[in-house]
Protein 1
Amino acid sequence: MQANTTSAIEARQTGNRIVIGGIAAIVVILLTAAVLLFLNLPDANAFNARVEALFVENASLTGQAEIKLLEILAQSGTAFSETLDSYRFVIFVLLIFATALLVAAVAFLVMLIAMNRRMGQIERKGIEVNSLLISRDQNMVYLNNFEFKLTDAAIETLSVLAEARMDDEVLSGAEIEGVISGRPSSDCEEAAGATRIKRLRDTLGNQMISELLVRNIARRGYMLAIDKDVIRMV
């Protein structure tokens, strides 16, 4: 038992390390991509530097039209610089957004995997029931912290299954129908008991609870998949 617990803890720790490593890898990849992208973007002052070079190289251009043209070029360089700065900010925000989405996707994926594993354990072991109280007078069933209001037929079916579980018996559909109807099981149909089981599960409502609580054993019948010591009937 201790070895199984230790193995489970080690497996959980390994899974946590894998998740942390995956998230760290995503952040590193996006950070590297961002650095490479920003390094390869053109310099925001490149256009202004070129316009300044034109002023210096063409100092002889003293005409009003030439000076006006150079001023327009300088203004265009300033506009280009401001536009490129805004593009840098937009790219930065998009990269942050992409990082957050990828990290969230990894987290949700891990949660789904953990939930599927938990559901698999529940399906293999059944529901861990600490108490099952059946009140026939009130047609109420108290399962752990869950409270269910059942119909008369459903409470009868559950009571028969509970009594059979306390006697370590597995009842077929015909036997369930026979106990409830008071007839010999040989005179009852298997389908009638199966119908009672289906109605009981429908009344319980929660599919996971109903399917795992009332276990169908192939070629044998039906039983409650709980410890008989937790069953109480009043």
Protein 2
Amino acid sequence: MAKFFGNLHLVLVAGLILAFGVMFSVHGADEVTAQAVTRWLHTFFGIVWIGLLYYFNFVQIPTMPKIPAELKPGVSKHIAPAALFFFRWGAALTVLTGLIVAVLAGYAHQAFTLQSPFKLIGVGMWLAVIMAFNVWFIIWPNQKKALGIVEADDATKAKAATTAMMTSRLNTMLSIPMLYCMVSANGG
């Protein structure tokens, strides 16, 4: 069992198989639609994305100043880059699957143009798009500099770390109303 649970990929595949097993056994093949599967994937990727956003802001950022200098490379060279990989792809896949759900359900245009009765989900969608933009075009480029993934001098690294942190905190702030919109628009 330790070998199985020690392999994240096997655990994820098993979880996916179990999820489909639950879907088909509870709902039957007729009710398991592309929209239902996409909505579930949207929720999964959203949990990955926002879970890592909260990890960075609630755990990693406040803890880094307390870590002895000789231990910081363990975080900056190994943990942070791995977490940022799942963070940015979680953001991209959350937005992509959310757009697919909106298109399949037929409300994408009305939501993006903030028309009733899709105004609330539309606000949530716009907040998510802004947050994903921040992840890919502000946080990630600056984290690459701050973590030494790309070449930068010490002053540039420090400025990049501050920019990434402030944008991450902005995303944390925006995530709160975004989550309200997403949950409440679907009957919360």
